Amino acid sequence: MTTPTTQVVRRKLVAGSQDTTELLRHAALQAKRRKFSEILIVDADAHHYETESWPEIVARIEDPVIRLQASGNSTLRGTTSILPGTTSGDIEMSGRIPRYARRVKEDGNPSEPRDVTLIRRAMHAIGIDYTVLFPGPLLRLGFHPSPEYEVQVARAYARWLTEVILPADEHIKSMLYLPFQDPMACLQLVREFGDCKGVIGFLVASYRDRSVHDNAYMPLYAELERRKLPLAFHSSVEWTERTFAVMNRYVSIHALGMPFNHMVHMTNWVINGLPERFPGLRTIWIEGGLAFVPFLMQRLDSVYMMRSSEAPLLRKLPSEYMREFFYTSQPLEVPLHSLDMLRATFDMIKAETQLLYASDYPHWDFDLPSQIYDLPFLTQEQKLRILGENAADLFGLGRNVSS
Amino acid sequence: MKHIIGNVDEFPLGVGRIVEVAGREIGVYHLAEGFFAVLNICPHMHAPVCRGQLGGTYLPSKPYEMEYGLRGRVLRCPWHGWEFDVVTGQSLFGIDKRRLKSFAVDVVDGQVVLEAAPIAAAS
């Protein structure tokens, strides 16, 4: 015996459309059930796609020739050749993560910059009070062999972000991209933009064929330390690099490459004594996951103890310096069967004071705050620290919880 | 508890629809293998899994060959791409017990009938 149709709502799945609020409706339910509106949550790593506003950025490029080249008007396909093409693999899995392709069709709110609208929708759905915003395609700018291009576009992006996006909402912050191929230009960027509203640090995109301990970067580090601004490394990976070119799947290079490029810079940073030379300069290691950190701590400690003459500036073990770095939590490598390894990792990195929750929304492996909040081995106090208090202390953020 | 959720013509082959029944969102799929229904909650991070796309996946094959199979019955969660076989509800990476919650659905006299108990308590 069947019952008559009762209150059946049929929601048609509309192909090709996107509304971030609708897409993240279940995230909003999670936030409501866990009362995230009562908790300060700082998202230490979220992204926008600055190429959606590319003409506004191009208009701010200072060099007239590079501005023309960036506009794409003089090229065969009408697209700029300034941003290196991606060989970084099929992140969106050919559309199976549909929000990548559909994003460009999402409407903003005419009264504010479109990026701000989209970011706010995600923040409100997830329960985020402050977002630390990073670019997308621009992170690959360092692959362009001409430092001049990197510098010009980095400066134009900094101008656009500080003129248009950051002033629009005090809950949106950023660490500005540094054109690392040109050390003096990096220093100049810090001097020009370090005081801008919403700028809370500066960023190096992590795939680099530059040595962080190169003497040329010391004035940059000194300036950052003087200003009490942290230096962040945002992980990235390049498939054509020789080490990774032997791998035939993106899953492989993503798994290894993201932490690996952090490890190269982190090893250089520690072994060359940079924490001793710049004790006030805090570093943040973004989007490498956490599982690599205990590995590197153990590995560097054991080798250092046998060859300490090669690292004469160190006054304590490498792992002790690493325990003073900051790490973002995404992508959290949650083990399948037992949380013991994760708990040990949290202990080793001193997560209670050093771990910063990050979503990495809208990327394909984003984490909701529940990834931290639901961990059974954390006390409520520890959860609050990781979800927002650590970041609020590090970045000097106000504690107002926006509902 | 059985619910009539519509005419069979409203569920064309190869298409999924999300229905709200008994306080739940349930994705109903008309596949070549028949009608199937799964809860619109991904076991990974509770995403609206039924908003994802249906497709196939790569099956085990010889080196340098690629064999596409399970056509039209693999649901890919739109948040992180987790893959589930709609027919069984199982996640495709087999070793994990996480799966979609399935509901019985059938066609009776041209009507699509879904069996779903009401939720025990408000959550």
Describe this structure as you would to a colleague.
The complex is a heterodimer of chains A (403) and B (123). Chain A has 403 residues and is of the alpha/beta class. Chain A has a single domain (24-395), classed as Metal-dependent hydrolases (TIM Barrel), CATH 3.20.20. Chain A has 18 helices and nine strands. Chain A has an eight-stranded parallel β-sheet. In chain A, helix 8 links the parallel strand 4 and strand 5. Chain B has 123 residues and is mainly β. Chain B has one domain: 3-layer Sandwich (Rieske Iron-sulfur Protein). Helix content of chain B is 0%, strand content 47%. In chain B, the strands form two sheets. Chain B has a six-stranded antiparallel β-sheet, with no helix packed on it. Chain B is globular and about 50 Å long. At the A-B interface, strand 1 and helix 2 of A face strand 1 and strand 2 of B. Strand 1 of chain A pairs antiparallel with strand 2 of chain B.
Q: Looking at the structure, what is the overall shape of chain B?
A: globular
Name the assembly state: heterodimer
Q: Helical content of chain B, roughly?
A: under 10%
Residues in β-strands, percent of chain B: over 45%
- The tally of structural domains of chain A comes to 1
H/E element order of chain A: EHHEHHHHEHEHEHEHHHEHHEHHEHH
> Architecture of chain A, CATH level 2?
Alpha-Beta Barrel
Helix/strand class of chain A: alpha/beta
Strand order of the largest sheet of chain A: 2-3-4-5-6-7-8-9
Helix count from the secondary structure assignment of chain B: 0
The most extensive contact between chains is:
A-B, 33 and 35 residues
CATH-scheme architecture of chain B: 3-layer Sandwich
In angstroms, what separates the terminal alpha carbons of chain B? 20 Å
Total domain units of chain B: 1
Write the CATH homologous superfamily of chain A: Metal-dependent hydrolases
Just give the CATH class of chain A. Answer: Alpha Beta
